[in-house]
Amino acid sequence: MKLQHRLGGLENLGPVNFERRVFVQPWEERIFGIHVAMMGLRIWTWAELRMGAEAMNPFDYFKYRYYEKWLGGISGFLVEKGYFTQAELDERTALYLQQSEATLPAGGESTINDTIIEYLRTGDSPQRDIVAEPKFKAGDRVLVKDVPTIDHTRLPGHLRGKTGVVDVVYEGAFTYFVSTGPDGLGAPMPVYCVCFDPKDIWGSLAEDNGRFYADIFETYLEAAPAE
Amino acid sequence: MKLQHRLGGLENLGPVNFERRVFVQPWEERIFGIHVAMMGLRIWTWAELRMGAEAMNPFDYFKYRYYEKWLGGISGFLVEKGYFTQAELDERTALYLQQSEATLPAGGESTINDTIIEYLRTGDSPQRDIVAEPKFKAGDRVLVKDVPTIDHTRLPGHLRGKTGVVDVVYEGAFTYFVSTGPDGLGAPMPVYCVCFDPKDIWGSLAEDNGRFYADIFETYLEAAPAE
Amino acid sequence: MSNEMEHSHDGHDHGHHPEPETYSAARAKALESLLREKGVIAGDTIDKVIDFFEHDMGPFNGAKVVAKAWVDPQFKELLLTDLPTAIQKMGFPPGSDGAEGEHMKAVENTPEVHNLIICTLCSCYPWPLLGLPPYWFKDPTFRARAAREPRRVLSEFGLEIPDAVEVRVWDSSAQIRYFVLPQKPEGTEGMSEEELASLLTPEAMMGAASVQVPAAA
Amino acid sequence: MSNEMEHSHDGHDHGHHPEPETYSAARAKALESLLREKGVIAGDTIDKVIDFFEHDMGPFNGAKVVAKAWVDPQFKELLLTDLPTAIQKMGFPPGSDGAEGEHMKAVENTPEVHNLIICTLCSCYPWPLLGLPPYWFKDPTFRARAAREPRRVLSEFGLEIPDAVEVRVWDSSAQIRYFVLPQKPEGTEGMSEEELASLLTPEAMMGAASVQVPAAA
Predict the structure, then answer these.
(1) Residues whose CB falls within 8 Å of the CB of residue D178, separated by 6 or more in sequence, listed in order
(2) What is the pLDDT confidence band of residue D10, given thresholds at 50, 70 and 90?
(3) What is the ipTM of this complex?
(4) What does each C-alpha distance from B94 to A56, B154, D11, D30, D41 come to in angstroms?
(5) Chains that touch A (3 or more CB pairs under 8 A)
(6) Res B117 pLDDT > 70
(7) Cβ separation of A30 and C45 shorter than 8 Å?
(8) Which chain C residues are closer than 8 Å to A20 by Cβ?
(9) Do A182 and B203 touch (CB under 8 A)?
């Protein structure tokens, strides 16, 4: 298993750093901007960013700050896809280490910005105009499958093998950026909001008087056996 | 979940340190000796040592060396049980930090050693002379339950929800040092050696041409649904 | 990709660059520099993106929505039942149903129910209304702990939820981006929508804090 | 207990004692000192225990058992089917079915099957025959990885298992303590049991290494 796929409920962790800032270093805002540009220009999607983070050593995943992981993921991806070489990146990094005030090249056409801002304004809805025929309806008891996830999933690991009740059947059908192979995502399918009793997930380790809701793609669900 | 309860198969880890020594520091042999003495004198059992390690932050669990965890666990346990106070332990530690050659007190009667050596020679079999009526027989397909483990378990997490075949029904019934509560151990019960196809555990992430065997207490098993 | 990632992390692990932030800043600048040089982005692309999140997408939008819902029961009903139509009425600049806001949903705090939004798998967040997620929301420790022990985590954040109040945790694992419609606090009678909006924080709109009212001057 | 454990770990985390091994050594000595002072253990208890693992329980026993099984087919059959009776025939000092050896089981490597012993939950090990486990066996990374990718881990250890050979992993999760009966290597014809025993390592008897035969002198 990838620990990143089943963080929910992990025990014995320390306190949360209640840091309210979005960026804690100026360079983080720049790498975020690069990510948005890459999304807007269809260079990559959330799927690639997430897969990169999920492919990390789980202890590094906890150790590195959020945007440190983005920096590593984006660097690796752009080199792998041939936008520039590792040597170019290392040389350029060395340059700015020596001359932090060195100016940057002029850049491409400003019409590029229009594409990116248009992406931000329009988004990239995974909803597809096909006739969905949902297998389940609100109130149905469903069992979450233990699908054979490999690199990537959108099924929170703590729900695998657990039973919940369909709360909402979302209208339409929803695709995903990439196929997740035997995990099951890719083709448009119904998505459900499923409500779980935390005691059914974590037993006596759950808190009292709670509800846990998750949005779950249909491929991850089957009808729960009769009680 | 406690990560320590489901280490098997964890992805994206680095290389194993193929260190063939049993002890890498002289003090480690002394703390091992203390552990054996505590076992022989029935001060504690493996269960307490294991529970302590399982109660650690999972990242510390990976970070600290084996006998560093024992050192922490034994120190905490003896203080908690009132053999000496934390202040006594800290003062004594400070003494030996300052004077590493300071002599140690004489100690109790040497008959104490007989009890400990007797324990080593006799052991502490969990087998109990009761008539076991095993629910399963060799060849039966069994499903591993997802029991509500709290502090301690002897069910490897990667087997939960998986199906295997009973290879051996061990003769007799086996208890455990402590009750593990809703997890299910404590009372004497049959134990089985169960054989799993690694593909049934890890899907395509499993290696080819393998078998995975685990010894599983009956409380963790139920009959697998018909295929 | 994971190898490149490790390689990159190795870069600042092995001490070639003693100060990690200095290294990361240079690396980020090198990325932007190369993307500009290759003509992939324009010279002002990153500035434009940052600017967009300062003016078009941000928690200032969510604050206005919540404030309006507090003073206009019909709008509140619409927000909870047909969010896209409600948001359209706000007159926001284009993009209020844009990136990471294509499918948003408001969940309402009441005297009986407290809602907390999390994303155990990554950091899904309703950009058009709340902007970008704060660090605590992205912290793997928060994501792991809040799923199972939301009351304890909230208590550590300084927010005590009475036992009698049900805590609902919403894990953003597919297309929906959730936010919380907090309870209108006491002592805000007669405040304008603008005054009410100024009370709202991203934390309050994720269920991680209550809405604080400054003591009357 | 976990709090005490963390407290103790904190002790050498926070830099009061810059050299962790020095601190741990002093801590271990303090434990022994206090247990002696309180009369819980005798002055020579720890020495006696260490001595026991040097002379009574150790891999020298397992090596003799394996060597005998290699030269005596009847003994080998007995070892694989009725281990307690087989071990009794060895004439070991009392304790060969003692602590951590109350229920042992031998699994045989053949041209078709390679066995690897692991303990994913802790570090269960057949003390009477193999003594105490080496560090690699106790490493959480080994325990996690060997369960799913035994061939890859063994390859990293320098042991290549051909694809056609089935790899059986034995996870010691209840009372049984496993060990491996390795294949008798070529080039050992005519060796005495004593010579054969000298070839055996703990790694070979756990399935983590092959048995090496020194080049003829």
Answers:
(1) D104, D105, D106, D107, D115, D117, D126, D170, D172
(2) very low
(3) 0.91
(4) 41, 38, 12, 9, 21
(5) B, C
(6) yes
(7) no
(8) 134-136, 201-203
(9) yes
